[in-house]
Amino acid sequence: MVNKAPLLEIKNLRVHYKVYGGVLKVLDGVNLTVYPGEKVGLVGETGCGKTTTMKTALAILPVPPGVVVGGEILYKGRNLLAMSPRQLSNVRGREMTMIFQDPMAALNPVFNVEQQFTPVLKHAAKNHLSNKEIHAQAVLALQDVALADPERLLQAYPIQLSGGMRQRVCIGMALATRPQLLIADEPGTALDVTIQAQVLRLLNNLVDRLNTSIILITHSLGVVYETVDRLYVMYAGNIVEVAPTRKLFSNPLHPYSQGLMDAVPKLSGGGISQGISGRIPDYSHPPAGCRFHTRCSHVMEICRHQKPPEFEVEEGHKVACYLYGPKNQEAAV
Amino acid sequence: MSVIFLAKRLVHSVFVLLGLSIVIFLIARIVPGDPVRLAVGARAPQWVVDNMREHMHLNEPLHIQYGYWLRDALQGDFGISLVTRRGVAKDIREFLPATFELALYSLFISVTGALSFGIISARYKDRWADNVIRIFSYLGVVTPSFVFAIIFLLIFAFVLDWLPAIGRLSNGLTLPPRVTGMVTIDALLIGDFNVFWDAFKHIIMPALSLAMGSMAQEARITRASMADNLTKDYIASARALGVSESLVMRRFLLKPSLIPTVSILGLDFAAGMGNAFLVELIFNWPGLSRYGMNAMLSKDLNAISAVILTFGVVFVVVNICVDIVVGQLDPRIRLSTAKGD
Amino acid sequence: MSISSQSDLVSAEISPHEFSQLWRASRRESLGRAWYKFSRNPLSLIGAGTVLFVIILAVFAPYIAPYPEHVKPFTDFANASNPPSSSHWFGTDEIGRDILSRIIFGYRFSLTMGLVVLSIVVPVGVFLGLVAGYFQHTWFDTIIMRITDIFLAVPPLILALSVASILERNLLNSMLAVCLTWWPWYTRLVYGITTGLRNEFFVTSAEITGASKFHILFREILPNCISPVFTKMSLDMGWVIIIGASLSFVGLGVQPPNPDLGTMVAAGRRYLPDEWWMSVFPALAIVLVVLGFNLFGDGLRDLFAAENS
């Protein structure tokens, strides 16, 4: 895996939102890498910038209010942020695509399923297919996601489908084009728990079968533990820690990751955890230095002034915290 | 659109119109002064008045009077107009097409204008084109149509002398044989382009005066709903799936954004029908509204009742049409009404 | 933000008195925010300024108008039909009256029209909407809403014109005519809100504790209608002024020589295009006041939206 060239590489991405009366400095230098065939998880509180990062990666961030202030996003070595709309449209759908959190909102309410499938498939096929072949592909895509009676389903409008069916349609549409990278933004969060589990299992099986790389955005740690190879932890517009999943669960280093892991209720007793006090900072005036220092119980003087760089503690395990800087290595442990 | 829904809607409309007829009847009966005196004039002898009272069933109780009135109205008999001295029903048949023609042109102008300006505005949101359109549409909404009529008259007829000031056709031209009653269309039917062009020039200003308000209102609504829908997940999703930007705009954004615009067409049409009373008067347009206006100015009760009822029927029909179009655009409405409430 | 402050309230043991104090404080805070937002929007301020300006003109007309005597029966044929000049900014009419002075006094009729109509229509419409909405699916509801439908089945201007036409022609009757066409809009607005609220928790809990119907209607539900009704009132001031001007434009409202804006436009129309100022300035005066109330109303809508969020 290490020898392979990365599929997607996000380097020092900084995104601001210009809003009435100020600037929200949302992404503050995000670094994230995905290798071919890899499954990557991205966890963090609501509002920490996970969705913004991924929307920027697909260039579907609404501009304005969003502005990319710095950094680059390399897909197979080519910078997506510098691409023309035409080049971008060659990447979107065919190479890389995204499924959204809320299947109620992600399907257009005034078109039926087939009307929404057709342009996607046509684009992926570069308009080489006849209408009959497109229709057949759409049927296949719905069978992929284990939906019965695809012919009838294609004529249905979103309002006629249940939440779980809509989520499956979304997944089917995203994978129908056989992209190399799928970004899944909290799939199933809007559904009830049993259906969510079914949908995730289906998604997992499908990406395994198609050998698709996936970035799974979630705040459910249980979900990532079972599915992803590597895990990124994000806080207030920064990646604070990255490690292979098992390692991160067994040995979380960043105080924020530790709080996050603590917050998972465990069957083996221990009662309800304290969680992390406080909340995500105000992005118009984020704290100087490490953005987590206002909530951190290990805060040091330097954290208040200087943003911590990434320290590689072990191979593949990086953490952005001064506790693991060269000087503090011994003190922390 | 389901048949049941339409049927329910029709039944409801019939009751509304019946109710309206009661209101009109009552208004016409509470008028200060003796309706008979109004009808026959102040100098008519007493026996004429008495005969007339008997003839108009005015000696009967009110609900019986209404019964007679409704029976006649349903047969298309609204009595004699005091102004034209002819049957009101005949007058309505004569004057309605001119108003209908005006409404068609005005509707065409307002809808095409509103969609173009609204889409440009949303497309170039917060740029100069958008700002100019927004300022003008705000002014368009707050300016009464009779003010537009006077400003257009001043500019296009008097200062620039591009368009004829009043009427429907210039002197010296003869009306084409009446088929639809709409002069521009009748002229085209017999292939008389001279008359068509003249009639067309006459209709521009009144149609534009009527269209301005609803054009401005609908442009604002189109812009707002497009801007709102642009932030929806389904647009981001379509883009993420690789659908081209032009297709996203033309199909996936436009159709849902049209729903609010079409939904308020009914209300805008109502406002337009009211404003037509003033605009037809200003441009001396020989339509039903000017007829109604003149009836009101001379307290011609039979004509007033018939005109209001006619516009009530038109409004009801327009609203049903709007509902059907909205249902066609929006499966959420179509499918939920199909199941019945 | 709202979630955390709510949980603060729930977790701490507080008395109802403290709770209501906290609630008022948070309400004050959100009103402050809303006012901040309103005052930061230049268009809303322009609207408020225009409305204030017109009100001052109307109230102090005798002191502001350069020729207040031109409002009463007056002729000065030596100065008839003068174009705008330094002594008559907006020119004079066909019998020598100063247009500007008559416009300033004309605002008195416009504002009276708007205020009187709304102060009759709003209580009636709101009351009927509340009753029909709260007693939904009873005969109250049926009767009130069917009558509302009937009045909404005719375009308002047509109904107002026809009612005004059969009555004597003066300001009072034209106000009456507009009132007759305007109440259903408030009934429908409040009906929509009330039917949405009647099964809400705070209403059912008031019912369970035995609150009177009067209390529920006016103390529990009515406060929720205030913001939309006020917004609509501000916008409607403009529309009612337009309808009033339309009535007098065709001669069914305020009668000459009284200086109503619509009457002046109609009178000046006969002297187009050479004496254009006679109709154009009163017409622009109508646009100005309607624009003011609209900008103000839109500002209010944003303000209430900010307060609710």
Task: Tell me what the structure shows.
The complex is a heterotrimer of chains A (333), B (341) and C (309). With 333 residues, chain A is an alpha/beta fold. Helices cover 32% and strands 23% of the residues of chain A. Chain A has a single domain, classed as P-loop containing nucleotide triphosphate hydrolases (Rossmann fold), CATH 3.40.50. Chain A is built from twelve helices and twelve strands. Chain B is mostly helical and 341 residues long. Chain B has 15 helices and no strands. With 309 residues, chain C is mainly alpha-helical. Chain C has a single domain, classed as MetI-like (MetI-like fold, Orthogonal Bundle). The longest helix of chain C is centred in the last third of the chain and has 37 residues.
The arrangement of helices and strands of chain A along the chain is EEEHEEHEHHHHHEHEHEEHHEEH
Output the number of helix runs of chain A: 12
Number of beta-strand segments of chain C? 0
Average pLDDT of chain A works out at: 81
- CATH class designation of chain C: Mainly Alpha
The N- to C-terminal Cα distance of chain A equals: 30 Å
CATH topology of chain A: Rossmann fold
Number of helices of chain C: 12
CATH class of chain A: Alpha Beta
Helix % of chain A is 25-40%
Along the chain, the helix and strand elements of chain C come as: HHHHHHHHHHHH
Measured between the Cα atoms of the first and last residue of chain C, the distance is 11 Å
- Which class best fits the helix and strand makeup of chain C? mainly alpha
Strand content of chain A: 15-25%
- Number of beta strands of chain A: 12
Q: What oligomeric assembly is this protein in?
A: heterotrimer
Can you tell me the CATH topology of chain C? MetI-like fold
CATH architecture group name of chain C: Orthogonal Bundle
Short description:
The complex is a heterotrimer of chains A (333), B (341) and C (309). Chain A is α/β, with parallel strands linked by helices and 333 residues long.
Structural descriptors:
heterotrimer; A: alpha/beta; Rossmann fold; 8-stranded mixed β-sheet; C: mainly alpha; 12 helices
Summarize the topology.
The complex is a heterotrimer of chains A (333), B (341) and C (309).
Chain A: E1 8-19, E2 22-34, E3 39-43, H1 50-57, E4 66-75, E5 78-79, H2 85-91, E6 96-99, H3 103-106, H4 113-124, H5 131-144, H6 150-154, H7 163-176, E7 181-185, H8 193-210, E8 213-218, H9 221-227, E9 230-235, E10 238-244, H10 245-250, H11 255-262, E11 311-314, E12 317-319, H12 329-332
Parallel strand pairs in A: 3-8, 3-9, 6-7, 7-8
Antiparallel strand pairs in A: 1-2, 1-4, 4-5, 9-10, 10-12, 11-12
Chain B: H1 3-29, H2 35-40, H3 46-55, H4 62-74, H5 88-123, H6 128-142, H7 145-159, H8 183-189, H9 193-230, H10 233-240, H11 245-263, H12 265-282, H13 288-297, H14 301-329, H15 331-338
Helix pairs in contact in B: 1-14, 5-6, 5-9, 6-9, 7-9, 7-12, 8-9, 9-11, 9-12, 10-11, 11-14, 12-13, 12-14, 13-14, 14-15
Chain C: H1 2-11, H2 16-40, H3 42-59, H4 61-64, H5 99-134, H6 139-152, H7 156-166, H8 171-197, H9 201-208, H10 213-249, H11 261-269, H12 277-308
Helix pairs in contact in C: 2-12, 3-5, 3-12, 5-6, 5-8, 5-10, 6-8, 7-8, 8-10, 9-10, 10-11, 10-12, 11-12
